[in-house]
Amino acid sequence: MRSLTLHLKVLITVLVLLGVAVTAYQIFFLGIPVTEDETDDLWNIDAKVEFVASTKDPIKVQMFVPPLNRDYVSLNESFISNNYGVSVNRADGNRKVTWSARRASGNQTLYYRLVLTKRYTNDKNTIKGSTFRDSLAVEGPEKVAAEALMAPIRQHSADVETFVSETIKRVNNLNDDNVKLLLAGDTSSMKKAQVIDLLLSIAHVPMEKVHTIRLVADTPQTPELWLRSFNGNDWLYFNPDTGEQGLPNDRLLWWTGDDNLITVDGGKKANVTFSMNNSEMNAIRLAKLTDENTDADFLEYSLYGLPLQTQQTFMIMVMIPIGVLVILVLRNLIGLQTLGTFTPVLIALAFRETQLGFGIVLFTVITALGLSLRSYLEHLKLQMLPRLSVVLTFVVVLIAAISLFSHKLGLERGLSVALFPMVILTMTIERLSITWEERGGGHAMKVAIGTLFAASVAHLLMMVPELVYFVFTFPAVLLILVGFMLAMGRYRGYRLTELVRFKAFLKKADA
Amino acid sequence: MFGLIKTWKALEARGIMGINRRNADYVLKYNKRHLYPIVDDKIITKERALAAGIHVPEMYGVIETEKEIEKLDQIIGGRSDFVIKPAQGAGGDGILVIADRFEDRYRTVSGKIISHEEIEHQISSILTGLYSLGGHRDRALIEYRVTPDQIFKSISYEGVPDIRIIVLMGYPVMAMLRLPTRQSGGKANLHQGAIGVGVDLATGVTLRGTWLNNIISKHPDTTNAVDGVQLPNWDGFMKLAAGCYELCGLGYIGVDMVLDQEKGPLILELNARPGLNIQIANDCGLTQRTHAIEAHIEALAKDGVTEDAEQRVRVSQGLFGHVHPR
Questions:
Q1: CA–CA dist A227, A244 (Å, integer)
Q2: Which PANTHER family does the entry mention (chain B) (predicted)?
């Protein structure tokens, strides 16, 4: 007996661990989202490039495009251009698209379209950067002003992070004479960044200009300037105007460096306008879309690899163990009496087709009528098989009648009774009538209500979309379920109803 | 919620056995599935009992097919009272007790007059499996009608009171007298409304009883006290029950017996999943008693000794007998 218990414990542990491990692997390692509602924002970014081509020269348009190496994944990227050759190349962590044409004239419009989303980047790129650089050359009064500014900054800072933010704060203090001198009347972000760069370079603190796009729908955008500095582990981002640290989540890094977004050779009046909108998408579908771009092969080996129709069947099937679990808990822990073990699960499945409220009414009506027919047949003293056949036929006729009436009344619901619920109904009637005869009407009512209750609970649980999604996506959960069921197999505590049943003992004890 | 936990703890402390524990620790552990037919089929039980020399109500005949229903008259012969039972019936359903007959009609114990055709239909229903567990085809059994001993006259309403003893590995653990009531329709099943009265294992004196999960001390129909009644031939019952272990090989059974006016204690049937209300009737939990027996068996096994039915009865009586009603 003891070895059996040990055996069982080992089995349960193995199953639960396996289930947890596989599920955890799917969630944390493969990054499969836990809920279906976890839709991802899908950003559609259009960069419209307009310029006027000069008729004589060949045209070469170079524009930075997002490097997409950190938090975002591109799902689709397209370069829309009529007669231009397109090439994309990487340099210094930036990506640049080059449109080129031998000849063009007049207003030119090129489009760059990017569909991207966060996530599905499990590989954290090792971040590289330098922590030292040479000072920029500076002469004369600027040098004096810069050094005057440096002294208090040095005093008020402890590390790279505080040094940079202190510098930005000082430079934004426009009343300071030294700052005025260095800015030379230009208070744009660009100029400020330049001054900050100068100051930091004197302290040999590395700094890079980062141009970002804000992911906000339906507002015109211009690239926003941020500064970043490398502290040895990670990039620290700073807003040059406010000294605010940390890049907000909705910023997309477009390019880094001092260069302009766009350079046009053989053209003028170059202008880039950004427009973006977002849409949401089921996370799994998204994962499938990103398939080509990332390693989403795991989906091939999940239930999502099945044809769509089979998937739908499985979505129902994987929920059956959940329904069975409900019955198990209701019967062995609570002590609810139901008609057989699996009849409630079958009824719960039938509710799928009829909807809950209507299903309960329908089941009650048909079962009541069926039972009265059954008790009438009892008087005729028929044998079991012929009697069952009559009941089944009666149920068919009854369902047909209900369907017809409800259709005439304009209630399409009545038509929802399909083949499957009908067989279940007949079985229910037969089993219920046997119970009625064996243990009396009161008990039969109790059992019938218990069955309907259990079926409703099971149905409601089996219909929770989050749960369906979860079990379907992480079928290993079923192993955990089996572990629980095995444990229940040796549960020997009281059932909830037994606490009531044996109350007599307590009354005695109190008296 | 805390009330429930308190109830739980209190029941646990008193050793009250729940269904889950009964199933996991006793029924599944001691009762081999393949032996179930011996207790589920009353005909097999009877044959086994006869072979082992254990007293059972005399079997007049068995009807197995529709065709054999014709033989009914032949089986009954000249007898005026008899019982028709489904061999695999559960909960006393489908049992027809004929008390008397005159001309071509029969009178049941409850006084209902029925015709020969109705008896034949009843047998036909039994054969199609209407009363059997799971609706399988069944056999009908025609046997001796037990006349309960006069001692039960005052504390029983119609029907035949029976005595149930729970037997663990041949050791009687707990006993109960089941008395039919008006509500139970003459049947001795507790869930149908019969009374269960606890019985002291050593003396055979009745204790208080249970009716519909409550503790009572008077019969609701006759209002006579059910406690303090000395059951006759008690040691005979105990030995009969203890001997059933050898008979069927199942380790945890409920043995249902009757006391016939003329033939004394007889075995009616065995039950592989005896109910738990016997605990309320005895105002005592089963778990402590079964644990005591299990410990005793373990001790015996260490010494390599086995005990016969008589010794086992004495062990049980020593361990659980002489309870004083509180």
A1: 10
A2: BETA-CITRYLGLUTAMATE SYNTHASE B-RELATED, RIBOSOMAL PROTEIN S6 MODIFICATION PROTEIN
Residues A229 and A339 in one domain: no
Specify the 3-state DSSP secondary structure of A130. coil
On whether the CB atoms of residues A429 and A391 are closer than 8 A, the answer is yes
Q: What is the pLDDT of residues A220-261, one digit of tens each?
A: 777 888 888 777 777 778 887 777 777 777 778 788 877 778
ipTM: 0.75
Residue of chain A with shortest Cα separation from B120: A381
Q: How far apart are CA A352 and CA A356, in angstroms?
A: 7
Q: Which residues, listed in sequence order, are joined to residue B177 by a DSSP beta bridge?
A: B163, B197
Q: Tell me the Ramachandran region of residue A379: left when phi exceeds 0, alpha when psi lies from -120 to 50, beta otherwise.
A: alpha
- Rg of chain A over all Cα atoms, to the nearest angstrom: 36
Q: Give how far B52 is from chain A: nearest CA, Å.
A: 31
Domains of chain A: total = 3
Q: Of the ranges A10-14, A244-248, A330-334, B287-291, which one carries the lowest mean pLDDT score?
A: A244-248
Identify the domain containing residue A336 by its residue range.
310-473
* Strands ordered across the beta sheet of B171-179: B214-216, B206-211, B195-199, B171-179, B162-168, B252-260, B264-271
Asked whether residue A22 is assigned to any structural domain, the reply reads no
Helix (H) or strand (E) holding B8: helix B2-13
Closest approach of chain B CAs to the CA of A509, in angstroms?
9
Cβ proximity of A430 and A388 under 8 Å = yes
Phi-psi map region of B71: left, alpha, beta (phi>0 left; psi -120 to 50 alpha): alpha
Chain B contact set for A494 (CB, 8 A): 8, 11-12, 16, 18, 20
Residue A1 sits at the chain B interface (C-beta within 8 Å) = yes
Considering chain B, what is the average pLDDT of its residues? 86
Q: Which of A498, A499, A508 sits opposite B215 (nearest CB)?
A: A508
Q: Minimal Cα–Cα distance from A8 to chain B, Å?
A: 13
Q: What is the CATH number of domain B58-143?
A: 3.30.1490
The CA distances from residue A451 to A78, A373, A396, in Å, are 58, 21, 22
A/B interface, count of CB pairs below 8 Å? 85
User: Chain B partners of A490 at a C-beta cutoff of 8 Å?
Assistant: 24
Among A301, A322, A346, which residue terminates a domain? Answer: A301
Q: What is the DSSP string of A425-476?
A: HHHHHHHHHHHHHHH-HHHHHHHHHHHHHHHHHHHHHHH-HHHHHHHHH-TT
Residue A17 forms part of a structural domain: no
pTM: 0.65
> What would the pLDDT profile of B164-203 be if each residue is shown by its tens digit?
999 999 999 999 999 888 887 777 778 778 888 999 999 9
Q: CATH classification of B18-39+149-320 is 3.30.470.20, yes or no?
A: yes
| Residue A450, both tokens | 């218990």
| Bridge partners for A280 per DSSP | A41
